[in-house]
Amino acid sequence: MSILKIGMTAALLGAVALPAMAQDPDTCSTVRYSDPGWSDIAATNGVAAVVLKALGYTPDIATLSVPVGYEALKNGETDLFLGNWLPAQKPFRDDLDATGDIQELVQNLEGAKFTLAVNKAGADLGVADFADLDQHRDAFDGKIFGIEPGAPANQLIQGMIDNDDFGLADWELVESSEQAMVAQVTRNGDTPTLFLAWAPHPMNEAIETTYLSGGDAQFGPDFGGATVHTVARNEWVEACPNVAKLFSQMVFDVPMENVLMGKILNDGLEAEDAARDYLSENPDAASAWLEGVTTLDGQPAQPALEAALNG
Known about the structure:
Layout: H1 3-13, E1 30-35, H2 39-54, E2 58-63, H3 66-74, E3 80-86, H4 90-99, E4 102-118, H5 120-124, E5 143-145, H6 152-162, E6 172-174, H7 178-188, E7 194-199, H8 203-206, E8 210-211, H9 216-219, H10 221-224, E9 225-233, H11 234-239, H12 241-249, H13 254-265, H14 271-281, H15 301-310
Parallel strand pairs: 1-2, 5-6, 5-7
Antiparallel strand pairs: 3-9, 4-7, 4-8, 4-9
C-alpha cells in the first residue's frame, strides 16, 4: 500500500491507518479491556463484546477503577480502554502518552458533558451557578454526592473543597458509586440535592436536572463539555491489526448510549443483552464499524454479525 493511500485512508477513517482485511493470528483471539463500573462504559463495552463474539474473538472485561484501569493498560495487563473521558482524565492520559507505548484509536463520542447539578428542589431555591451554592448550604445539608472513590470527577470536587472554591470548604463529598448516587438523588425527592451529573445517562430523563454554570475552571466550558476516546497499546495494535481496525471505527453518539444505558439501568438487562437488543433493532448501526474488518478466521464481518444477531 502506498504512503499516499495510507494517508488518505487515515484521513477518511479519522483513526489509525491499519491494513484493510488483515486477518489476525490466533494469539489475538482474546481482547482485554476494562470497565470502571460506569453504565456508559458498560454499554459501549457490551456493544464491543457482542461484536467481538460474532467475529470469533473472546472479550475479557475486567472491572477496574479508573486509576487501576490505566495502570493495567500501562503495564500491558489490558489491551485497550473505551472510556478515556477528556478533559477530566487528562492527567491519566498524559501519563499514558508519556510512555510512548499507547495510542489513540478514535474519538468514540462527542457531545458528552459532566459537572455538578441540582435537582428540581435545588433549582427552585434559585441555584443555577456554582456561586449560588454556599448561601444555601443548610438546605443541601452541606453534601455533594459523587461517584466511586478515586474517580477523577471526585478528585475535582474534593479539590474544590480543599481550595475553598465558591466557599465550599465546609461542604462534604459523599463517595459511593454511580448507581448508589443516582438512587440517593431519586430518594431525596423534594429535598435540595447537589450531585455529579453527566450525559449521556438516563438520569437526565428520570431526574429533573439543572446543570450549574460557573464551573469552567474546574470542569471545563460548556457545562464540562467532554469527548470520549478509545486508547490502546501500540504493541497490541501492531500484533492484531484486524480487531484494532474494528475499534478504530467503533464510534457512538449520545442518543445511542442513552438507549443502551436505559436498557441496562431501567430495564434490568445485562450490558451484552442490551447491546444485542439495540443492534438487532438498529441493523445499520454497526455497518461503518465493520468496513474492511474480517472475522478472526478471515471471513467478512458483516454477515457474521448478522448471523449472530439472528441466531
